[in-house]
Amino acid sequence: MSQAFFPTGASYYPPHHDPAQWASDVANMAQAGMTCIRSAELLASWDYIEKERGRPDWSWLDALFDAAQRHGVRVLLGTGSPSPPIWLLDHYPDVQILDREGRPFPTSTVWGWACRNHPGYRAEVERFVGLLLDRYAGHPALWAWQIDNEPGYPFVNRRGEEHARIFDYNPHTEALFRQWLQQKYQSLDALNVAWRWDCTHHQYADWAQLRAPRSLPQEWGVVTAWLDWRTFLNENMAAFVRWQHELIKRRDTRHPTMTNIFAFSGREVEMALDPWLMARQCDAIGYDLYPGIKRRLHLEPEYISLFLDMGRSTALHAGTQFWLPELESGPISGWALGPDYTTRPADITRYNLEALGHGAKAILYQGYREWPCIPIHWGALADFEGNATPRYAAAQQVNQMLAQHAALFRAAQPPRAQVGIFYDTRNAMLLHGMGALDLLQRCVRGAYKTLWRAGYGVEFVDSGALQRGGLSYKVMLLPAALLIDEATGAALVRFVEGGGTLIGFAKCAWVDGRGWSWARQPGAQLEALFGATADEIERDDASIELDESLQSKIQNPRPKIKGYWHRQPL
């Protein structure tokens, strides 16, 4: 992915603006030093281009490409798969994803309503991506391809529901799950043992009897079945992205591919989004950063660094590049009660410097110009009429620096960290299913924040990276690492034997890879490694009074700290 420029730019969707201003908007982007425009991935995409099947209207996208070429700007082009045209439902009435109650997800709302395993949908995606390749793969303004957009199941709660709905129970997805189970277990006898559960111990006599689990573990659903189901969905979602990557690479090997995700939102398990797996599907992995949502910038001062370190870590362990295809560029979120946060010019500068310091190799704002049909508060560098805001000037200043030192920023990498934090998807799936994902998030944040304040560089590690070995960290932390399987435990033993220091937290290695309790805890060989066995576990929700020696080590100490405490006599 060698190139003579540092990719910096913004998302821009011409159909939302006056056609007479398209050219001037692109000119103003170029004037600000932007080298890239992102478009057609979602907000004006396949659904807008192909109103009638087989009769695409490329006029606005052609105009964007031509204007970009005139001004020396490149285009990051979306494949359109998250936003299929509504006629898809006419041709394939059973194409919608289904929740665990069998309810189809509605159209005309958040993206991802079509079942990615429906053969009709996949055929139409392949056809449309082929049309995009026919028209734009050879265009001199094309820079890269964005596959899908934040691929995963819908993450927005329906009104009156505490959590986002659990997907996807479309028959096409369930059929593939049964195939996945057959490949994993080989025999029904093995599956019957693995899916053992105190409450309902079904004995399956035919693979056709298997249904994807409808109950979470906290609802007394089978833990192993839940982990199998979510693991399959993660792999299935990543395979969908990889499938599009391969469709593109068969015909276009010149331009890189990227898909965009996010981290630490609390939604990843529901979405079937495994960041470690997703990072290995394309030429680059993108992360979408919005520090102002829920006022995270003020409530969690370490949030930006935590988020960027997670993105960099997944790219690092996948051997790919780390991009920011969506960066907050104006007052953000909140609907009628918003915005959650009013983004200032100083924030634009800070976000960019943080991203560069964490190794991002492309930075694009979301978006360049505000669009009036989304009154959620999703500010931009230019206002509704296309006039530059003070944030535009801040972006221009950053871009001037990037242009002057493009070679440096393209090549520079942050120094490798000496501290690793274990953050594994299967552990997150377990805790989500048990209603304790927030515990994991808070434990990880607490561990990270302590190191961040002390000035330590941090990288995140999953079980796959541990098992592959070759890690050079001096210290590894295991916050809320309740699920540690035998292979990961063996990798941790090797890490310590190689000179590393391992720090376990409460209930470390509580369950194995099936979600079953280890008979002796910590399990997975960690009992011998730590030289200690937990006799019992006691929980205390009360405030803990700190002695003076501890208070002297804590910034702004309080005599008592309220927390969620586990006491494990050893």
Distance between the termini: 53 Å
> What is the topology, as strand order, of the major beta sheet?
1-2-3-4-5-6-7-8
CATH class of the domain at 1-34 and 283-412: Alpha Beta
Averaged pLDDT: 94
SS-based structural class? alpha/beta
Strand content is 5-15%
How would you characterize the largest beta sheet?
8 strands, parallel, barrel
CATH architectural name of the domain at 1-34 and 283-412: Alpha-Beta Barrel
Q: Which fold name is given in CATH as the topology of the domain at 1-34 and 283-412?
A: TIM Barrel
Percent of residues in helices comes to 25-40%
Task: Tell me about this structure.
This protein is of the alpha/beta class and 570 residues long. Among the domains are: 1-34 and 283-412, TIM Barrel (Alpha-Beta Barrel); 419-534, Class I glutamine amidotransferase (GATase) domain (Rossmann fold). The protein is 37% helix and 12% strand. Helix 16 (425-433) packs across helix 17. The protein is globular, with a radius of gyration of 25 Å. The model has no long low-confidence stretch (mean pLDDT 94).
Properties at a glance:
about 575 residues, alpha/beta, TIM Barrel, Rossmann fold, 8-stranded parallel β-barrel, 4-stranded parallel sheet
Quick overview:
This protein is an alpha/beta fold and 570 residues long. 37% of the residues lie in helices and 12% in strands.
Topology summary:
Blueprint: E1 8-11, H1 22-31, E2 36-39, H2 46-49, H3 59-70, E3 74-78, H4 87-91, H5 119-136, E4 142-146, H6 171-185, H7 188-194, H8 223-249, E5 257-261, H9 268-271, H10 275-278, E6 284-289, H11 296-299, H12 303-318, E7 321-328, H13 345-357, E8 363-366, H14 390-404, H15 406-411, E9 419-422, H16 425-433, H17 437-453, E10 458-461, H18 463-468, E11 475-478, H19 486-497, E12 501-504, H20 526-530, E13 538-540, E14 543-545, H21 548-551, E15 560-562, E16 565-567
Parallel strand pairs: 1-2, 1-8, 2-3, 3-4, 4-5, 5-6, 6-7, 7-8, 9-10, 9-11, 11-12
Antiparallel strand pairs: 13-16, 14-15
Helix pairs in contact: 1-3, 8-16, 13-14, 16-17
